[in-house]
Amino acid sequence: MTHWDEDKRARPLVGQYIETLKPYVPGKPIEELRRERGIQGEILKLASNENPLGPSPLALEAARAALLEGHLYPDGAAFVLRNRLSEYLGVDMARIVSGNGSNELLELIVRTFATSADHAIVSEHSFIVYRIILKSMNVPFTVVPAAADMGHDLVAMARAARSNTRLVFVANPNNPTGTYNGRAELEAMLSILAERPDPPLVVMDEAYFEFADAEDYPDSSRYQGLYPRIVALRTFSKCYGMASFRVGYAVATEEVAGYLHRVRAPFNTNRIGQLAAAAAVDDEDFLRRTLELNRVERARVSAALSDMGLEVVPTQANFVLCRTPLLASDLYDKLLDRGIIVRPLDGYALDHHVRISFGTPPQNNRLIEALREVLSP
Amino acid sequence: MTHWDEDKRARPLVGQYIETLKPYVPGKPIEELRRERGIQGEILKLASNENPLGPSPLALEAARAALLEGHLYPDGAAFVLRNRLSEYLGVDMARIVSGNGSNELLELIVRTFATSADHAIVSEHSFIVYRIILKSMNVPFTVVPAAADMGHDLVAMARAARSNTRLVFVANPNNPTGTYNGRAELEAMLSILAERPDPPLVVMDEAYFEFADAEDYPDSSRYQGLYPRIVALRTFSKCYGMASFRVGYAVATEEVAGYLHRVRAPFNTNRIGQLAAAAAVDDEDFLRRTLELNRVERARVSAALSDMGLEVVPTQANFVLCRTPLLASDLYDKLLDRGIIVRPLDGYALDHHVRISFGTPPQNNRLIEALREVLSP
Question: What domains can be seen in chain A, in order of their start residue?
Answer without folding.
Answer: 16-54+285-375 (3.90.1150.10), 57-280 (3.40.640.10)
